[in-house]
């Protein structure tokens, strides 16, 4: 039997790492997840810290701190404010009382006893710190002795006053002992205003080396000591306060600021949970230690979790979302313990670290604890857990682990976990990088719109009973309002996600009061729902007669204020409605936010109150919401054109298909399609026509091409005849080289202004070309040429129609795609790269971030799409990775491997990358070069591709570093100083050159060309239609120059109407030995000044001035100026 | 101006001063290298022709005529041929059916007659499509052959070039453009506009060219068919009969043959598929193969990752 040996093999555990990994591989089976396991192992190796060197002397320091805190002198009960004043006077240390501070009249007494129990907790003991953390912190807790606390201290912040007092005493002794060797300051533990702690930062150790921030440059052996810091945290004894009284629904802060009892009934979940958490340091330390012991992979799973959270901007502090490494570890430990409720099976300790990680992500992605409390362990307190925000309830310790989380951070965590789950489920893509390496919390790449609140409006003082701080209070209000306005079902979900980013709170010196927090700096990030974000009419509840309906309407009106009005809708009755006047999703969202925040919080009325970010890009292009209508109109014009062609009756062959192939007809051109008549020639929109298979084509390439001309002439005549006066047709000749290439095209200009260019597809042509490339009897250079012709043929008649279809489909599926493509193209234009790239390549890059959007979801606005595409370009190592787009959605893994293998093979054949540079494969084209080579030349070449990566890298660096302060215009400013030569075209002449008329003198030799334009009625050309544009004049000029100076000058130009052309000399072609066939114009050495011709290899150098003078002669009046770098 | 060598190898150096233009107002000098023409396959006119390399990219025959005239006076220059002109001298050569071309090439030795050649040239000219450029550009560093009146002129030109170095009076480029403005089409925007104009030739002329071509093509096809027919019956001098396409029946189309082959392959493939997994040993072998494949890929992954590690930085989370 087959299965028996397999089972036995599974049982005997071989201990080496490889075998383990191999086993995992055998179990999971798919190539990607094996790679994932290996890569995470590598990651764990890479980030692990060598504790002995990294924290040199930390243990000693901890001991010293312990003994120093032990030296606190006990004293008898004293009135609290008095005692505080005494410390301040004696040690110049402020007592960090939480707000509201104890009043002078209060008669709390504080006494002090010597702290006895110390412990080090957190990731220092569990050794789960990583190198890339922002700061490395050692947490040291000491227990406030039970004898100085009273049971009723849980009420009205009393415990926290005592805690602050003890802390101040500790800071006094520490300042005494460490004042010279370390920096001491206060900080709120995790941004929790109730819990100040002391931060002790040892001053640079060792003296000689300065604290380095780039540990990754050194190996594990030569690690330098880190810049660590120690937090000293006082805590309460476990089980000291009766937990039954601290449940989430209890109201424990009963005194308002003025001593009135008005807010007494409000529950104070945050306060309660903080109090419980104070007693849980030691229990949780035990829980984690147990988990570590039981499950070998626990530690590594925690490290993975830490990295995952860190890359998504999560952390333990309130500002970072309140879900950090500690919460991750705890949740994992509890799940391992089998603390499950119904539904969620607990985890087995024999899982590996990656499996644990995946399980955690899975858990987080199915438990939305912002909406529904998640209870771990058998719950008795279920009914208490009401609307206290996100809840992860540990029923043994009776603590809500997620008490620091806010509704928005829980929603964000849920969303991020779902995105990551999508990555982990998609076995065909790279899972590792989006999970752990890429930074996923950059605001401009993550959110479609970001609003910064600059003014706080007025605070509602009375509601401050839960001690979370004013900023939090305010933000949560903003969140509630915006959530209702933007993302509730009621109004059809304009936003998928609303996130509020709070300002971080900084440490402050011992002798000062904490800085009062400011609301300015609160940032609201919004992720659009692309299908609903553009709606201008919001329909509310039906205004019906029933009580329920009336109440709904009342609520609606109360929320929307005067904006709400009644409207009747066809077939939908009378409804409460809100109307908005803006057009684009962004403007709509801004309008709504300004209105609703002003209505409820009195902010946003002034422009300065709210600043919106993320829109500057679309103003730059400009992208208008009406653009898509123009593209649709172009599409429609094309459809009617196709119908006209199909309706022609006298064609000898049946038309099979007329397929568009140009960016204008797939919503992807930077400029809108030209649909109105103009007197300047414009390039028609391109399409190809194919006929039913026929045996009538002659069996010769040249003859096929001539037949095509005859065919085009016939189509043109028939069209003109049929639509007399409304259509004008021209047969144009291609600017080609040989007679076997396509020779002609038909330009059809409609009276309405739409114009099309038609080329004919012949199936026999492809067969003949194919045969010739395989024919061994033909000379090699002819075969190479034929192969290039075949590639051109396939590009024109196979790939481009398919590509156009693909992009059109995706543009309808992703409303933001069109804008993202156009922005990216504009970026390529501005940096003068477009000349070297095909339109399709840029479109596919933009498409890639939509169909493979990890670590996020598909972008829902053009901006995010553009930023992510830039980031992709910056990260893409095109030398070794192919860009694979699964446009069909079902690409078999075998194809992917085949594509990768093909790239490898190319790199082996052509290591200098002179033929194949960038490799882009789609479902339709797995050769990988259909979109990156034209006429047998790589497009882009290696030089240009390198430049693209460099530009994208610096652009994304700017985006990352400047964050919201980014002026997006800077991304689009070309730097001209890198070019050796700059050719400025004369814009007026260039424009004029585009205008030609059929009556023009064809040779341009007329002695004195007729002066046109002085009197419109005398000009013979008035009323005459201009010729279409065969190709852009500047493009034609550049093509000629490129051919003339191939390999010597590399030209850079943006869009076809760009009037500045940059060029760079090829450094390898500067000087050479004289020979008959030189690649460019050279001058003999010695014509300069010295006689350095003693070097034998070199006897000619590049004649730069000569070449530029030639260019000036060729360009004539079209070139205004040529600048040369000297 | 600094003095350069007057010769490099067996080439004489001819400096040409380029008049400055408003768009590039620097003085520039272009260097053309020339020698007696001595191609590998000698031709009758070698003795009276010069070989030029590194001609300016905007050179025309008239430019060179004026250049020679400024060196040795009028009346010496006969014609000039540029390298890229030679290359596509006969674009209509592709016009015949592939098969016919091959047959003609192999068996047309006897068919050379003067009158027929002229006839052909005329036909080909009629079938040619109009050019879309009024004036071609040369490749930078390209070559040209200049044909002079007699061998003595060659001598004189070379002497004049040597003298130029001594007298420092370099000939000026583009004087012809001034003198002969009517015969040299201008470059710049006029040139580009003319291109656009010429890209859309008159429909009737185009139709005529296409018709001429198809007449020519049919004629060639017939000729080829005739030759093929003749060869079918005629043994060559060694007594072999060449096998040619098309026998008693109508000539088979290549396409049909390919189609048939594809169908046959398909049928075979189908048959093979049906027999797969029929026997147990096949199944077992396949499983074994899969397992081996799995192991192999695992090894590959590991190699890839160690390669990535060598590149460094791949495994460090971004900050």
- Major beta sheet, strand line-up of chain B: 1-2-3-4-6-5
Number of helices of chain B: 10
What overall form of chain A do the CA principal axes indicate?
elongated
Give the mean pLDDT of chain A. 83
What does this molecule look like?
Chain A: Residues 1-20 are annotated as: Disordered. The complex is a heterodimer of chains A (1126) and B (319). Chain A is an alpha+beta fold. Helix content of chain A is 39%, strand content 15%. In chain A, the strands form ten sheets. Chain A has a six-stranded mixed sheet, with helices on both faces. The longest helix of chain A is centred in the last third of the chain and has 34 residues, at 780-813. The termini of chain A are far apart. Chain B is of the alpha+beta class and 319 residues long. Chain B has two domains: 7-90 and 138-198, no CATH class; 92-127 and 202-252, no CATH class. In chain B, β1 (7-8) and β2 form a beta hairpin. The longest helix of chain B is centred in the C-terminal third of the chain and has 32 residues, at 280-311. The model of chain B has no long low-confidence stretch (mean pLDDT 79). The interface between A and B is large, with 122 and 98 residues.
Keywords, please?
heterodimer; A: about 1150 residues; alpha+beta; 5-stranded mixed beta sheet; 34 strands; about 40% helix; elongated; disordered N terminus; B: about 325 residues; 2 domains; 6-stranded antiparallel beta sheet; about 50% helix
Question: Layout of SSEs?
Answer:
The complex is a heterodimer of chains A (1126) and B (319).
Chain A: H1 3-11, H2 17-28, H3 31-47, H4 51-54, H5 58-70, E1 75-79, H6 80-91, E2 109-112, E3 118-121, H7 123-126, E4 137-143, H8 158-178, E5 182-188, E6 196-202, E7 229-235, H9 269-278, H10 281-294, H11 298-311, H12 325-336, H13 353-366, E8 374-376, E9 392-394, E10 399-400, H14 407-425, H15 432-437, H16 443-446, E11 449-453, H17 470-487, E12 495-501, E13 508-509, E14 522-528, E15 537-542, H18 547-560, E16 565-569, E17 573-579, H19 585-601, E18 610-613, H20 616-620, H21 627-646, E19 655-660, E20 685-691, H22 701-722, E21 727-733, E22 744-750, E23 755-761, H23 763-774, H24 780-813, H25 817-830, H26 839-851, H27 862-875, E24 883-885, H28 893-909, E25 920-922, E26 933-934, E27 937-938, H29 942-962, E28 981-985, H30 987-993, H31 1033-1044, E29 1049-1052, E30 1060-1065, E31 1071-1072, E32 1082-1084, E33 1100-1102, H32 1104-1115, E34 1119-1124
Chain B: E1 7-8, E2 11-18, E3 28-36, E4 49-55, H1 61-72, E5 77-82, H2 83-87, H3 98-107, H4 114-127, E6 142-148, H5 151-167, H6 175-179, H7 189-199, H8 203-233, H9 254-275, H10 280-311
Helix pairs in contact in B: 3-8, 4-8
């Amino acid at each position: 039997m087959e299965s028996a040996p397999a089972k036995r093999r599974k049982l005997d555990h071989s201990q080496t790492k490889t075998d383990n990994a191999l086993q995992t591989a055998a179990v999971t089976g798919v190539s990607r997840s094996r790679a994932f396991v290996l890569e995470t192992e590598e990651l764990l190796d890479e980030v692990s810290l060598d504790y002995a060197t990294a924290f040199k002397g930390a243990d000693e320091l901890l001991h010293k701190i312990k003994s120093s805190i032990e030296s606190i002198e006990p004293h008898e009960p004293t009135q609290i404010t008095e005692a505080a004043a005494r410390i301040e006077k004696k040690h110049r240390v402020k007592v960090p009382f939480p707000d509201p501070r104890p009043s002078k009249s209060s008669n709390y007494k504080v006494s002090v006893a010597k702290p006895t129990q110390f412990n080090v907790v957190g990731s220092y003991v569990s050794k789960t710190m990583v190198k890339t953390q922002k700061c490395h912190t050692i947490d040291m807790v000491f227990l406030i002795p039970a004898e100085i606390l009273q049971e009723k201290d849980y009420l009205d912040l009393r415990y926290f006053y005592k805690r602050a007092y003890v802390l101040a005493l500790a800071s006094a002794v520490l300042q005494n002992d460490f004042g010279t060797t370390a920096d001491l300051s206060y900080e709120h533990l995790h941004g929790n205003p109730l819990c100040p702690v002391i931060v002790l930062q040892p001053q640079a150790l060792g003296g000689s080396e300065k604290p380095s921030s780039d540990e990754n440059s050194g190996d594990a052996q030569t690690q330098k000591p880190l810049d660590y810091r120690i937090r000293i945290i006082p805590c309460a004894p476990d089980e000291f306060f009766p937990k039954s009284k601290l449940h989430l629904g209890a109201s424990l802060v009963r005194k308002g600021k003025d001593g009135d009892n008005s807010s007494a009934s409000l529950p104070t979940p945050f306060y309660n949970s903080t109090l419980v958490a104070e007693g849980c340091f030691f229990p949780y330390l035990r829980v984690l230690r147990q988990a570590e012991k039981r499950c070998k992979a626990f530690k590594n799973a925690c490290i993975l979790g830490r990295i995952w959270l860190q890359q998504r901007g999560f952390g333990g502090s309130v500002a970072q979302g309140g879900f950090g490494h500690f919460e991750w570890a705890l949740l994992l430990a509890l799940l391992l313990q089998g603390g499950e409720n119904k539904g969620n099976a607990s985890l087995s300790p024999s899982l590996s670290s990656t499996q644990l990680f995946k399980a955690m992500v899975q858990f987080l992605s199915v438990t939305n604890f912002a909406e529904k409390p998640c209870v771990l362990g058998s719950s008795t307190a279920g009914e208490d857990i009401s609307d206290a925000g996100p809840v992860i309830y540990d029923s043994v310790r009776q603590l809500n682990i997620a008490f620091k989380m806010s509704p928005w951070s829980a929603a964000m965590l849920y969303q991020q976990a779902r995105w990551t789950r999508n990555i982990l489920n998609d076995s065909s893509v790279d899972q590792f990088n989006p999970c752990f390496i890429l930074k996923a919390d950059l605001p401009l790449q993550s959110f479609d719109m970001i609003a910064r609140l600059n003014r706080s409006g007025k605070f509602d003082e009375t509601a401050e009973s839960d001690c979370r701080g004013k900023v939090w209070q305010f933000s949560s209000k903003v969140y509630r309002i915006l959530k209702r306005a933007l993302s509730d079902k009621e109004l059809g979900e304009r936003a998928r996600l609303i996130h509020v980013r709070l300002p971080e709170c900084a440490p402050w010196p011992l002798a000062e009061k904490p800085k009062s927090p400011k609301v300015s700096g609160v940032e609201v990030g919004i992720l659009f729902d692309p299908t609903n974000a553009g709606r201008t009419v919001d329909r509310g509840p039906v205004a019906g007669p029933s009580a329920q309906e009336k109440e709904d309407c009342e609520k609606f009106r109360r929320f929307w204020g005067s904006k709400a009005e009644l409207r009747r809708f066809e077939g939908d009755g009378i409804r409460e409605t809100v109307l908005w006047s803006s057009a684009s999703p962004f403007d709509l969202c801004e309008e709504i936010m300004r209105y609703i925040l002003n209505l409820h919080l009195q902010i946003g009325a002034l422009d300065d109150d709210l600043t919106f970010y993320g829109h500057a890009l679309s103003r730059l292009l400009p992208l208008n919401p009406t653009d898509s209508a123009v593209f649709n109109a172009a599409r429609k014009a094309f459809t009617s054109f196709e119908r006209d062609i199909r309706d022609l009756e006298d064609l000898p062959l049946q038309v099979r298909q007329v397929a568009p192939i140009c960016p204008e007809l797939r919503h992807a051109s930077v400029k809108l399609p030209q649909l109105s008549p103009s007197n300047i020639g414009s390039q028609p929109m391109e399409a190809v026509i194919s006929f039913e298979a026929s045996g009538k084509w002659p069996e010769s390439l040249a003859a096929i091409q001539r037949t095509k001309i005859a065919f085009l002439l016939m189509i043109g005549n028939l069209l003109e005849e049929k639509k007399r006066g409304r259509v004008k047709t021209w047969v144009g000749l291609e600017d080609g080289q040989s007679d076997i290439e396509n020779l002609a095209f038909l330009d059809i200009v409609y009276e309405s202004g739409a114009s099309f260019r038609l080329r004919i597809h012949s199936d026999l042509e492809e067969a003949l070309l194919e045969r010739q490339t395989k024919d061994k009897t033909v000379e090699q250079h002819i075969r190479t040429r034929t192969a290039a012709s075949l590639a051109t043929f396939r590009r024109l008649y196979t790939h481009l129609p398919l590509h156009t279809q693909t992009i059109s489909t995706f543009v309808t599926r992703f409303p933001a795609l069109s804008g993202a493509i156009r922005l990216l193209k504009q970026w390529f234009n501005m940096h003068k790269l477009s000349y070297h790239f095909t339109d399709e390549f840029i479109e596919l890059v933009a498409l890639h971030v939509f169909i493979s959007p990890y670590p996020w979801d598909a972008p829902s606005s053009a901006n995010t799409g553009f930023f992510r595409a830039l980031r992709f370009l910056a990260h893409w190592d095109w030398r070794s990775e192919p860009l694979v787009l699964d446009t069909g959605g079902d690409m078999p893994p075998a194809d992917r491997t085949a594509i990768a293998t093909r790239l490898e093979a190319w790199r082996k054949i052509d290591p200098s990358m002179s033929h194949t540079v960038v490799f882009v494969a789609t479902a339709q084209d797995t050769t990988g070069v259909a979109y990156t080579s034209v006429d047998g030349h790589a497009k882009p070449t290696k030089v240009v591709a390198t430049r693209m990566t460099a530009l994208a890298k610096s652009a994304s660096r700017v985006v990352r570093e400047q964050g919201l302060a980014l002026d997006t215009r800077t991304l689009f400013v070309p730097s001209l100083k890198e070019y050796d030569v700059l050719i400025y075209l004369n814009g007026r002449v260039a424009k004029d050159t585009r205008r030609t008329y059929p009556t023009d003198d064809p040779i341009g030799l007329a002695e004195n060309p007729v002066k046109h334009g002085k009197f419109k009625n005398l000009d013979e050309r008035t009323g005459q239609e201009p010729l279409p544009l065969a190709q852009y004049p500047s493009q034609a000029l550049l093509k000629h120059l490129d051919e003339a100076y191939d390999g010597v000058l590399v030209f850079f130009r943006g869009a076809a109407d760009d009037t500045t052309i940059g060029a760079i000399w090829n450094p390898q072609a500067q000087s050479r030995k004289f020979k008959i066939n030189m690649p460019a114009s050279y001058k003999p050495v010695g014509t300069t000044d010295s006689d350095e011709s003693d070097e034998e290899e070199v006897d000619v150098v590049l004649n730069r001035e000569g070449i530029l003078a030639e260019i000036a002669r060729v360009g004539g009046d079209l070139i205004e100026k040529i600048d040369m770098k000297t | 101006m600094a003095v350069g060598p007057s010769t490099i190898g067996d080439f004489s150096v001819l400096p040409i001063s380029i008049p400055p233009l408003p768009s590039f107002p620097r003085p520039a000098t272009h260097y053309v290298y020339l020698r007696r023409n001595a191609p590998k396959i000698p031709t009758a006119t070698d003795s009276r022709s010069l070989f030029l390399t590194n001609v300016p990219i905007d050179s025309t025959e008239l430019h060179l005529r004026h250049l020679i005239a400024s060196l040795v006076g009028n009346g010496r220059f006969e014609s000039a041929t540029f390298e890229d002109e030679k290359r596509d001298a006969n674009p209509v050569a592709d016009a015949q059916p592939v098969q016919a071309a091959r047959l003609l090439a192999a068996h047309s030795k006897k068919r050379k007659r003067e009158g027929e050649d002229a006839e052909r040239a005329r036909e080909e000219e009629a079938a040619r499509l109009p050019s879309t450029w009024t004036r071609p550009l040369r490749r930078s560093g390209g070559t040209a052959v200049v044909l002079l009146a007699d061998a003595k002129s060659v001598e004189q030109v070379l002497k004049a070039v040597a003298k130029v170095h001594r007298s420092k009076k370099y000939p000026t480029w583009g004087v012809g453009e001034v003198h002969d403005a009517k015969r040299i089409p201008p470059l710049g925007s006029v040139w580009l506009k003319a291109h656009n104009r010429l890209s859309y030739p008159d429909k009737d002329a185009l139709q005529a060219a296409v018709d001429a071509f198809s007449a020519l093509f049919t004629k060639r096809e017939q000729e080829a068919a005739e030759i093929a027919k003749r060869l079918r019956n005629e043994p060559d001098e060694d007594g072999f009969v060449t096998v040619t396409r098309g026998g008693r029946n109508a000539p088979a189309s290549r396409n049909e043959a390919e189609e048939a082959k594809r169908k046959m392959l398909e049928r075979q493939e189908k048959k093979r598929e049906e027999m797969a997994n029929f026997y147990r040993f096949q199944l077992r072998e396949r499983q074994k193969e899969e397992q081996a494949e799995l192991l192999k890929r695992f090894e590959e992954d590991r190699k890839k990752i160690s390669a990535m590690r060598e590149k460094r930085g791949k495994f460090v989370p971004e900050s």
